Amino acid sequence: MTRDELVAEIVNPAGIAEADLAVAVISRHEAGRIALPTMKAALGLSRAYPELKAVLINCDNASRDGTREAFLAAETEVPLIYVSSPPGLAGRGLNIQNAMTMADRLRVKALAVVDANLTNIKALWIKSLFDPILKQDAEYVSPIYVRHRHEAPLSRRLAYPLLRTLFGRRVLETIGVDHAFDRRLIKVYKDAAFEADDRGFRADLKLLALAVMNRARICQALMLYPRLSAANPMDGDLPRAFRHTARALFDLMAETRDYWPGVSRSRPTALAGADEEIKNPPPQVEVDQARLAAQFAELGREQEAAWGRLFSPSLAGELRRTLAAAVQGEAPRVPRDLWRASLFEASAVGARDEAVRDEAVAALAPVFLGRCLAGLEEDQDSNIRQLNAQVEAEAHCFETAKPELTALWRQRVGS
User: Fold this and answer.
1) Please, how many CA atoms are within 13 Å of residue 25, restricted to the half-sphere of its CB?
2) Tell me, what CATH number does 255's domain have?
3) pLDDT for residue 384 is more than 80
4) Which residues pair with 143 in a beta bridge?
5) Residue 311: domain span
6) In sequence order, what are the residues at sequence separation of 6 or more whose Cβ sits closer than 8 angstroms to the Cβ of residue 43?
7) Which pTM value belongs to this model?
8) 283-314 pLDDT, tens per residue?
9) Residue 179's closest CA among 194, 198, 161?
């Protein structure tokens, strides 16, 4: 199926054929929520760029709950276009693919992608995402939201340090967030293949990877507010969310293995809006440490044999000792070096075989939980500056050990 064939339905009441800016609202069964981000995005466009021709595009997965009707009924001064993937095909990746296809057809200067389930989207976010591109300071813009210290462990302890190590760019938030791109990158993305997946991790990760590989100018934008969205069944299941994210990262590593071993160091990324005042504090996030510890012990017992089969004897032995202590009632202690070594080995063992890749991800899940628990203890008395320094220190630990990672992969893939 060609890229154009993924656009199965287009509803364009105003007959828009060309625009300067587009915001794609990504949806699947969001009839009850899509009006809010649609109207806020339209307001942001009208306020910030009244002189530019803008359009809102709902990229949907043939929802049957009235999402299309709710989107088209939203009261906006910006014209609306509804686009759907073919019935039976679903996933955030497909919606992002269609967003790129439509943005290219409309010959826009810049495209932003936001989620339909956002419950606190601000009109100001649209300006924050587009300004660096329109000022020609960036081609790819990634957000930084106001976060509670216990929020987004998948970004902090998994995606950020590994992506920084692989691709050499320090971009804090890459998964399940809003982005903006210029026309050159839109063309790059339009011709890429974005796999459908449950929460868009593959698509979001690939957006950054392709931006780096195409030498795009990258910027982060401070969004001044927390990012709140409707609850997802995976939000309360950290092991499951980890497995999806880790598998997406390992798939990306395999897909780009001819590129990332040649990246030797990371570079900082510019931050737009750094001097602005934070508007709202983030909601309190409570972590059930007893539950995490129980999950570590339960999953660890399930995966103990896999550790011995997949990992080196020294690593498997260290993990078994950590598990034994936890089973005896001690708090699981997975320091950053043990977490890094486990992640590196797990990524390499499935380099050639996708079935083994699934096994490695499952074996790694309890180690991640143990690292999260140890991190909670490390962060306990830290202020925001110290927390940020700890995030960077952990990522630096990954980055300085990259020769170990490339050697592991060389052993597995022979290059």
Assistant:
1) 31
2) 3.90.550.10
3) no
4) 221
5) 289-413
6) 76, 123
7) 0.94
8) 777 888 899 999 999 999 999 999 999 999 99
9) 194
